[in-house]
Amino acid sequence: MVYLYLIIVTTGITILVNRYYARKKRNLILTLWDRNKKLDYPINSHETFNYFYENTKGSSKDDYCVDDITWNDLNMGKIFENLNYTFTSVGEEILFYRLKKAHERHLINEELIERITRDGIYRSKLSLILSNLGKLTFANSSQYIFGKPDYKVNKVYFILSLIPIIGVITMFVSLQLGISMVLISMLVNIFIYYSNQSKNEVEFKSLFYCLHVISSSRKIAKLNHDHEFIKQTTKLKKATFISFFLIQDDDNGSNLVLQLFTLVKTIFLIDYFIFNYIIKVLSNNRELYEMAWRQLGNIDCCYSIALWRKTLPFYCLPKYTSNSPLVIQDAYHPLLDKPVGNNFDFHKNILLTGSNASGKSTFIKTIAINIVLSQALNTSTSKEIILKRGLVYSSMAMSDDIEKGQSYFISEINALKRIFDVRETSKDNFIYLFIDEVFKGTNTIERIAAAESVLNFLSDYKQTRIMAATHDLELTEKLAAKYDNYHFREQIINDEITFDYLIKDGPSKTKNAIELLRIKKFPEKVYREAIINTKSLVN
């Protein structure tokens, strides 16, 4: 009797504690929007947010994407992290997919984004539903959209699950035999349970998450008065109905009731049968599950876009054209705290010059990022953008690859070659190319000669717009017929170097690298000799 009271008291305390933390979390969630904050989750260092993107590769219409080199060049990982206000793993995977496959025609529900932004009551209800689903590392919930899982039930397991019951019945005939049957079957089934759990733990959690995706999508449909969706997904409801049986105790085993419940499930191998049943339901209703999965992910993604836009100084919705590739006003880099806006008309291939730190690389990234964000999220960090849809590829932040034994120059060669390959194999696609410091890793003579040849060749493709940055002013003259020249300029006033970060017409006319030796107080002899050396090289 004492043990019964202890169980009741412990369970009661556990329920009160859980309610306290649930209310605390609820209050936190309801204030996230006003504070421009995201719900804290464990850092997804394993990048499981790329599951959906990886799963779609076999069924995708094309292989084009913002590839790894371009992704790293544009620091898209940091941008993804900054704008990722999603509540769920599904929304996170959809968001990542859209950025990687930016060129696809993604449908962005602007009406929903507007409602999330303006309707606080609706936003709060939606946030609570999404946050209740939450994120689960390694929850590959989209695999059941594309894969064909094996859900055949082992008949031996079915027999083993019945033996404890048979043993209890046998006790009425032979107590000793019945007890032996019950004990042995319990030990065997417990061993089987934990063996299967250790092998299928990740998939088990994924399945449990799938059920929550289905139930959450139906709750959102009810919130949106989407009766057609609720009707269509009725077949999936039977899978969510039995999700109760998958509930497990937490890691510290504080809930005695759940511990007893888990023990009963273990003895009768209930989780094994439910596991296979759910896979069967999902497999037989794959299209319905995909619809529920995508709809929930898209809604969560809309919330993320809405909150991200709220944090921006200003933004605009892109307009698309089949004529001029890109016209943009007050374009700025989304990662800068105090960005400087630039107007730009990308009607012709561009050659950018200017000193280090003047803003060339940042401007190139700003234009490239805005093309990606416009197509992926229907959002540009500018006051206006008119663009032509297209692929984005870059060759910018090259480095020595010690593991592969590659020098900077070899890395750059490989990056440029893959641009040539893409351009050759996708002649019908419009492509934006961004190249920073062409052949920086080799000597001056070969660099200029090779850069001129590469940029000349790429400019001959009609479906291409190129922006390249260089320190080699010789290229501005050699490529003048095919490339417009722009530059960024610095000023030295009272021995202080300043930048306005505004793009200007024409090639750069200033050469302040040697003057910086004086400003930074290098030995006078070094400074004077550098000036003399410069004159001799020019002559």
Automatic annotation (TrEMBL):
GO molecular function: ATP binding; ATP-dependent DNA damage sensor activity; mismatched DNA binding
Domain DNA mismatch repair proteins mutS family: 347-535
Keywords: ATP-binding, DNA-binding, Membrane, Nucleotide-binding, Transmembrane, Transmembrane helix
A cellular component annotation (GO) from this entry: cytosol
BP terms from Gene Ontology: mismatch repair
Taxonomic superkingdom: Bacteria
Record's keyword annotation contains Zinc-finger: no
SUPFAM superfamilies tied to this protein: P-loop containing nucleoside triphosphate hydrolases
PANTHER family tied to this protein: DNA MISMATCH REPAIR PROTEIN, DNA MISMATCH REPAIR PROTEIN MUTS FAMILY MEMBER
Name of the featured protein: DNA mismatch repair proteins mutS family domain-containing protein
Classification of source organism: Bacteria, Bacillati, Bacillota, Bacilli, Bacillales
